[in-house]
Amino acid sequence: MGIAAALLDDGLPAGRRGWLGRIDARAKVLGLLFILVIATLVTTLVPLALCVGAAWALALFGGIDIRRVALALLAVPAFTLALAVPASFNVVTEGAPLVVLCHLGGGHWGPWRVPEFLTVTDRGLFVASRFALRSAACVSLASVLAAATRPQDLFKGLRGLGVPAAFVMVAAMMTRYLDLLVRCAEEIHLAKLSRSLGGVSVRREQAWAAASMGELYRRSRTLADSVAEAMVSRGYTGEVHTLRQGRWSWRDGAFVAGCLAFGAGLLALG
Amino acid sequence: MDKVFDFRGVSFAYPGREPSLRDATFDVGEGERLAVLGANGSGKSTLLHLMDGLYFAQSGEVRAFGQRLTPEAVERPPFGPLFRKRAGFLFQNSDAQLFCPSVEEELAFGPLQMGWKEEEILRRVGDTLGLLGIAHLRDRPPHGLSSGEKKKVALASLLILSPVVLLLDEPTAGLDPRSQGMLLELLDDLHGRGGLTLVTATHDLELLPHIADRVLVLGEDHRIAADLPTERALGDTDLLLSVNLIHAHRHRHGAMVHSHPHQHTRTHDHAHGEGKDHLH
User: Fold this and answer.
1) What is the pTM of this model?
2) A238 touches chain B (CB under 8 A)
3) N or C: which terminus of chain B carries fewer CB neighbours within 10 A?
4) From its phi and psi, is residue A21 left (phi > 0), alpha (psi between -120 and 50) or beta?
């Protein structure tokens, strides 16, 4: 499987994505987006932990591929630890010391005051945990939505929720052509690899990378021109018309109601 | 026979470049099967773009269905939408043609632009997918399809509009033999049963007898070198050699090595002197 295929859709039809996959895309976007917004508003740890738990429960019992959600969640520490860990120290966030890590000696370092000891503070640990949990909640919810919804349904769902057709069309085309762009970049890289012997200097690598970017830009422009011509050829005159959405079932309504109730509960918890 | 296209002294050049097409004069009748034959860069694709009202003649005149093709004419109703409905263009690169998130939306794109009713569109989507035997692809995203499937979906996205003429740019390029065969059979059906006018740009001589009764040969000077029935064009070795569609190459017969022009697609006999005639 190439990078492009791994980045994009897994090709599973809606029916094979569990009961969550069969929920209307509009209901999923609306419900999960509401919880995601709540996750950015709450300030205590319990609702955030509940949010992560709910996302995982949906992934586990919704019948979707749990590996995709787990894979996305693995990326969270890489992005959050670099920010969260320093925030737990007394040099960044003051508070009551919980663990003393080392002796710094106190005094001043330029305009900054150096504390006597480097410690993990209670307030720092809270801030770092909240940041990590919030990131985990957002990533988990987004990956549940992505795993349970095919891209084409997701775009339909956005359109059905009133997002302007031109915006959805551009977003859909970006996703569609990302695949080709990545494939094209892969081909350029492989073509170079097949004609390379041994290492080359950093400067030459940089020159090659710049030239490849130029070539990639040229190819994507040619393709963009062809796409525009293909659209005009089939009657496009600047205004996007798309298919209307089907009706909601009671299941879709129940899902949204459940999400709204859960989100309200989280807000009440703080 | 009514004229579908009428070119009179048409020339076209991309900005800052030499002309891609010079002084082209010909017409295409309704129900005809015409091939535009030429080497790479001879102006075949440009000619199809001019026929589809995507490019416009810089000198001379292009008429389609009796109306002069100008930027204004192809944009304004009633002729604009009617022209887009009647002329379908199958691009060489299917990835350029399939830009929607799903096959269903791909087929619905054209009719939606024409303002058709949604119930009618959904019915026609089902019918067209069924006609091409690809109903199972309806909810699939186009990027995950094979080359043959992409070509069929691209063709379906044109056929849904019930066009009068199909402009096909290298339709079999990049297809495996089975997909090529299916596409040729389908085009033959559409022409035979539906009376569709087919204009195909190609440099593939093997394809010609299957897709065209008449051939417009473009030379490397971007002018029309000949306008002939297919059989005569294929039999004219000097013409094909002059427009770079066949080449003379060296080959060996036992101890004898010699060079002469011939098509790999047709059997032919020739003489080496001293009675050593033979058949390729």
Assistant:
1) 0.74
2) no
3) N
4) alpha
